[in-house]
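assembly run, all chains below
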Amino acid sequence: MSAPQAIDQFLQTHLNDYIKETSRLCAQPSISTTGLGIDECAELVVEILRQHGLETQIFKTPTYPIIVGRAKGQSERTLLFYNHYDVQPVDPLDLWTTPPFEPTVREGKLFARGAKDDKGELIARLAAVDAVRAAHDGVLPCGVTFIVEGEEEVGSPNIAEFVRDHLDLLKCDGAVWEEGNIDHEGYPTEFLGVRGVMCLELHVRTLTRDAHSGSAHALPNAAWRLVGALASLKDANERILIPGFYDDVRPPTKRDLELIDAMPSYEAFARSQYGVRQFVHGHTGKDIEYAVFEPTCNICGITAGYQDEGTKTVIPATALAKIDFRLVPHQDPDDILLKLRVHLDLNGFADVEIVQPEAPMYPYKTDAEQPLIELSLRTGEEVYGKRGYVEPLAGGSTPVYAFAQPLGNIAAICPGVGYWDNRAHSPDEHIRIEDFLNAARHIARIVEGFADLEK
Amino acid sequence: MSAPQAIDQFLQTHLNDYIKETSRLCAQPSISTTGLGIDECAELVVEILRQHGLETQIFKTPTYPIIVGRAKGQSERTLLFYNHYDVQPVDPLDLWTTPPFEPTVREGKLFARGAKDDKGELIARLAAVDAVRAAHDGVLPCGVTFIVEGEEEVGSPNIAEFVRDHLDLLKCDGAVWEEGNIDHEGYPTEFLGVRGVMCLELHVRTLTRDAHSGSAHALPNAAWRLVGALASLKDANERILIPGFYDDVRPPTKRDLELIDAMPSYEAFARSQYGVRQFVHGHTGKDIEYAVFEPTCNICGITAGYQDEGTKTVIPATALAKIDFRLVPHQDPDDILLKLRVHLDLNGFADVEIVQPEAPMYPYKTDAEQPLIELSLRTGEEVYGKRGYVEPLAGGSTPVYAFAQPLGNIAAICPGVGYWDNRAHSPDEHIRIEDFLNAARHIARIVEGFADLEK
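ok done. output:
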């Protein structure tokens, strides 16, 4: 039996055990936004890594623990796996078919908060390592290092410093990044970069307390101030009006656009999945996807005044918007923050307070020709029967910037358990069990091939 | 002992009983916004009116009951009292020192939702009627009719039709309106008119479900749409931009402005009570008060996306604003609603849905020279030691329009239990017990004088 056959047989045989292990990990809440269950989940991750034969340490940070588990291989070369054990909040709770922390299998899918993002990913990788070890008489061909943090969903405020302080511990020759997906046509995907993200809150207070709206001709309304401040940020075509906002934005390269052209169309997918009638900027076709090379300013939430059923005629004394900026390579969050402050001041909104509740993530981009990326595409084709495509810049954000440069300009790949409808960050988050198996098969092949990979 | 002396002695002797009766009524929740406790409260009001010797009937409406209690007097002339037994919602609950439906007396004040608006007012009026009856050997000099409805706080959708259908039952020669206040300098007040109010909801949906903000360059954000729609309604100087919005607005008369000039300054009061730094339109001095003759568009609340602690990077699929328009005499709510729809459509916001959750209230205004108003001012001076002033147009709204014209262009007055800091519609709503006593003394004198009043 060939090694790939042995790997596949091992994973098929133990698949139910790994789904149970994923369920066990998902049943433990770990919401970094509020801190719910974080410490308990960290302990559970330590226990699980040790059960998979990794020498595991837990490191305190000013906030939530970081866990590192390592196993040596025949080769000196080491593959780093980055994951996180924290999850997004679960609201709106009434839209979940089954409770978010009661993992449930139905119709070949495992439903739970974290099933995809990122607990299912972690267990699939551990399964892959188990399978390679089993297929090679208990010896891994390359070393593996797992780093699992607990605050990715709140901007990974400690990971960059942790990496800089532990370069020896984390020394590696390439990385398997947080998560991965096959797309809506079943193609595996790779990426060359991600946008950064800066989350901010805009706070307004106009009165010491709410007032009766019969005085609206006299008393200033915090919600109107906030609406004015927000409206000042964009023109009717969604162009961001903060002076200097686009200074460091560079246009995509010809190669970037070619890579996007080679990707399946996003338009029909988004129309069917999100019921989109009109895309941002009025874009259609590939223009929708090219726009990932532009930064965004997004309203995540607005809170002001009376929000329950029926009416209450009040002048809100306070108003709050939560916004995020997705930043493209070469943009600097600190620079953007300063420009936002100046913009608000110049537009008469000096009373709008900016609060930065968490550290920003910086953008990251590498070049298109990387042996590790080719390894992922080749082994992905073996598993999925389709050669994947490479996304030049992902719209979301991960702390890959914190690893890539400090660890020697390593490349990062993203095989994973996802598909186009996992509902990460949303109610009814889930994975398809078939995807979990394929991801483990794919990752096992990458671990097998990594020792001999030309750097 | 003179009749006024007998009245005052009666009220002083029984004050504690009336405060207990007010507490009993306030302890019964009756939130018309949600319907909580409404039916139980209506039954309690019937019981209380009967205990005060009124022949009482309860009338069903499509929503909440209306109660009418009557007592005959020596004269054919009848004074109508309008009140409501419903109250505003109680949120934010954590800002109440004691629970809103557990009435508590401390430092000479009674704290409870409804203590001022409008249950305390109702009991003070019943106390006044009791006192006049006691001072006149059990016979009232004029007839009294109490009408107490259960949905004033949601726009009184049934009162106008009820009045039209019960003109004989409600036949009267003048009315004591919902509530009254002494101002921050201790002056009793009267009014000649009120603004109307139209509450609306603006709903936006851009996606079938929330999406990850990494797609913000492509997927439309409902919160941004709502911000755009709201921002289109006003310019930077708070001028409302809906075409034709000001068509029917008439400037205040010279007499209106004189009446405002005679009122105590609102500016210092609002600065100290609400911490106002800058008033709407940048007004100062009397201009702040003159602005009541302009209609307003107020945001009562905005709801969109993630609103809890910390961050969640989502594109909201839906967004909602609750707004109210305060309309001045001659403006018509239906006309304004149509103009708003046209404005949104012309500005590219045809996707913003307008919902009208409750019937509007129309504006009302009478002329300055009314014998009933003079009676209230004269008797108020006896009680408070200060002659009250007349507010030509109150900023808030009441359904006085539904009574005044159908019942024969009667005048309405507003003696009452309030002062400048009752916190109606807000946490820690309360009345001062001293004000309750004075209001009852004032109203009793009005009942005494009404039979002989030149119409």
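The longest helix of chain A spans residues 3-27.

Chain A touches chain B through 91 residues (CB under 8 Å).

not gonna interpret more than that til we talk
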